[in-house]
């Protein structure tokens, strides 16, 4: 994280989190300050803190920091005191200081002007001090060696000083969730060498959730090392500069929840390194560009029009597409889904798709999307039967086709679908992960992530939620048993999955209760199944990775299980 303390890029993971959170607030066009607390704060704390954890020391998944960096952070208040303290002017005497790390304390008062005398300073991280007010002092431009500024979640106000342009070595500027106003730093990119330097080293510009106004600066074009540009949740107006598409290293572009107008530059679709593009909740018009390199594409809640370009089917990197609440018309292009084999999330709701007479049906090639987990087509004009091929979307967790004129019979939803969904939920509970995370790899969800981890014969406890680490051995073994049971239910082959009636017996079996209690709760069959799992879960017999690997490789294991009947034979095989 580059703001709360300054640091690493957070990538697609951060955007995916906020996307899921915003999905529940779909009716709100434009996100003002009042709505930011709900879903953006969750984004920052969940997504960015995870990025911090990867590059420094362990951080709790919900933002509980346990120290930072190799120097640590000294408290700004005495133990047991809740009184805020100010930074003393004497701090300017530390002329040899290279890193000033004072984030998440109870600092108050303005940043002292004397800080400008710290000529050797390379890192300034003071994020999370919510009572740190005032403008960023112009003296900050005198830090010729400064590489990182992290002042997120503070009360820093006013415009950014032009002296920031003097910082030739600056790689990260992160002042999100603050009170900045005015235009984004004038002359940020194309500034003369003698006056401002050129900020050619800048990699992360994170100014989300402020009150910045003006336009998105086209002067960023010379910043060839820029990877993350996050200006969402501000008051920016005007069009999106086409030159942003020429930034060779740009990986994330977040401009959502502003007041941007005009068309989407087609150059963005051809940006070579772009992974995440979020332009939602603006007033953009015109057609959707034809080509996309990004894997995460959110253009929802704009005024885009025209048909969905057929060329989008030739964008194999796309895994997340949200185009809801626009004015997209026409039919879904034939062959749309044939090449989007990694597609996991697709939201085309509240458009005018299918506005022809007669309205078209959903395309039958939808069955090609075997990785799809969320499909939202509600509020359109689709007609005729739902194609039976949708039954091939074995990972589908949400299907929303409400508000259309569909007819006919839905594909039969079997108990095997329920079992798989239960397995996914159980994996979420034991790993603390979401069903889809960028760290899982392209086209992979939590199920495949766990399987891959175990198949590499890595330690099973590494996939268990870090909040559950350090428990007594008995509980550790119960968690591992729950992990194994989740894999049983989430087999990729429906015919290999157990049935729901086995759920209670298996879950009860991982507890170290006596068989009498098991019989009372679930009958003789449940007790037998519980006994089988209990033997496997014996704390005196540490679970080896090979036992869980057997669950992660369903082909061989389930073939053996099919030779017998009932859950008992399967449990014996697992032993």
Automatic annotation (TrEMBL):
<dbReference type="InterPro" id="IPR051716">
    <property type="entry name" value="Plant_RL_S/T_kinase"/>
</dbReference>
<dbReference type="InterPro" id="IPR003591">
    <property type="entry name" value="Leu-rich_rpt_typical-subtyp"/>
</dbReference>
<keyword id="KW-0433">Leucine-rich repeat</keyword>
<keyword id="KW-0067">ATP-binding</keyword>
<keyword id="KW-0677">Repeat</keyword>
<keyword id="KW-0472">Membrane</keyword>
<dbReference type="GO" id="GO:0016020">
    <property type="term" value="C:membrane"/>
</dbReference>
<dbReference type="Pfam" id="PF00560">
    <property type="entry name" value="LRR_1"/>
</dbReference>
<dbReference type="Pfam" id="PF23598">
    <property type="entry name" value="LRR_14"/>
</dbReference>
<dbReference type="InterPro" id="IPR055414">
    <property type="entry name" value="LRR_R13L4/SHOC2-like"/>
</dbReference>
<keyword id="KW-0732">Signal</keyword>
<keyword id="KW-0547">Nucleotide-binding</keyword>
<feature type="region of interest" description="Disordered">
    <location>
        <begin position="63"/>
        <end position="85"/>
    </location>
</feature>
<dbReference type="InterPro" id="IPR032675">
    <property type="entry name" value="LRR_dom_sf"/>
</dbReference>
<keyword id="KW-0418">Kinase</keyword>
<keyword id="KW-0808">Transferase</keyword>
<keyword id="KW-0675">Receptor</keyword>
<feature type="region of interest" description="Disordered">
    <location>
        <begin position="554"/>
        <end position="575"/>
    </location>
</feature>
<dbReference type="GO" id="GO:0005524">
    <property type="term" value="F:ATP binding"/>
</dbReference>
<feature type="compositionally biased region" description="Polar residues">
    <location>
        <begin position="562"/>
        <end position="575"/>
    </location>
</feature>
<keyword id="KW-0325">Glycoprotein</keyword>
<feature type="domain" description="Disease resistance R13L4/SHOC-2-like LRR">
    <location>
        <begin position="85"/>
        <end position="284"/>
    </location>
</feature>
<keyword id="KW-0723">Serine/threonine-protein kinase</keyword>
<dbReference type="InterPro" id="IPR001611">
    <property type="entry name" value="Leu-rich_rpt"/>
</dbReference>
<keyword id="KW-0812">Transmembrane</keyword>
<keyword id="KW-1133">Transmembrane helix</keyword>
<dbReference type="InterPro" id="IPR011009">
    <property type="entry name" value="Kinase-like_dom_sf"/>
</dbReference>
<protein>
    <recommendedName>
        <fullName>non-specific serine/threonine protein kinase</fullName>
        <ecNumber>2.7.11.1</ecNumber>
    </recommendedName>
</protein>
<dbReference type="GO" id="GO:0004674">
    <property type="term" value="F:protein serine/threonine kinase activity"/>
</dbReference>
